UniProtKB/TrEMBL annotation:
Organism of this sequence: Asanoa ishikariensis
InterPro entries linked to this entry: SAM-dependent_MTases_sf
Top-level taxon of origin: Bacteria
Protein name: Methyltransferase domain-containing protein
Length: 208
């Protein structure tokens, strides 16, 4: 049976839940990426954005919010509506698309972005799909741009492999949460030239 992702989001009601603490770690990396973004427009893409809490709560108080042009992609209509409602109060331009985030065509016109969020995905797709998604990162991320990502640390811990896949794609680590945290959050910068988006591809399939 498919997972109830609206129910999953109720975990954010408890500020000490694992996902709430993970959210704060993600938001710290988003804040740092926005602080460091070059002057002018800041393109942002969020895959499987859920309610968009990570980005939207940071934008609510970030001095660069008015420079942000974001595309959030979320399949669930209830969550997409919540993200739209939260975004409506911001000075940023935020487009919430209710669509399949795994399809590369969904990102036409929004990439390469300065900030790319892969949050809440890598615990729900196969290792092969994670590798495929990371290999495509240079198509999503502008040169010098940042990917913020998450993955749980349960055994077998895939984070070391994820770091290797980022390195192979030309990304350097900016931050990786400590191994003993009960979540995994990282930020990687694209040190390469980037690559045009290859259309017509599926990057991953959610396993539940
Ligand atoms: C673990 S939640 C993460 C939500 C958000 N990124 C966060 O970290 O709070 C996974 C999200 O992916 C969405 N999702 C699952 N498959 C998807 C797909 N193929 N395209 C877009 N969204 C999808 C679910 O509806 C859910 O909101």
């Amino acid at each position: 049976m498919a997972r109830d992702w609206v129910d999953w989001h109720t975990g954010y009601a408890d500020p000490e839940s694992t996902i709430s603490r993970r959210l704060r770690a993600v938001q710290e990396q988003i804040r740092l990426a926005l602080d460091a973004a070059p002057p002018g427009r800041i393109g942002v893409v969020s895959m499987c954005a859920g309610e968009g809490r990570d980005l939207l709560e940071v934008l609510a108080e970030h001095p660069r919010a008015a420079d942000v042009d974001a595309r959030l992609v979320e399949l669930d209509p209830v969550l997409a509506d919540r993200a739209r409602a939260a975004a409506s109060a911001l000075p940023s331009r935020v487009e919430v698309i209710q669509s399949d985030a795994a399809l590369t065509d969904t990102y036409t016109g929004a990439v390469p972005a300065q900030l790319v969020l892969f949050c809440g995905i890598f615990g729900n797709i196969s290792d092969a799909d994670i590798a495929t998604t990371l290999a495509a990162s240079p198509e999503f991320t502008a040169p010098g741009g940042v990917v913020v990502w998450t993955r749980h640390r349960r055994e077998p811990d895939l984070v070391p492999q994820i770091l290797d896949w980022f390195a192979a794609a030309g990304f350097e680590p900016l931050s990786v949460s400590p191994p003993d945290a009960d979540y995994g959050v990282g930020a990687h910068r694209n040190t390469g030239p980037g690559r045009p988006l290859a259309l017509g591809r599926r990057l991953f399939t959610f396993q539940r």
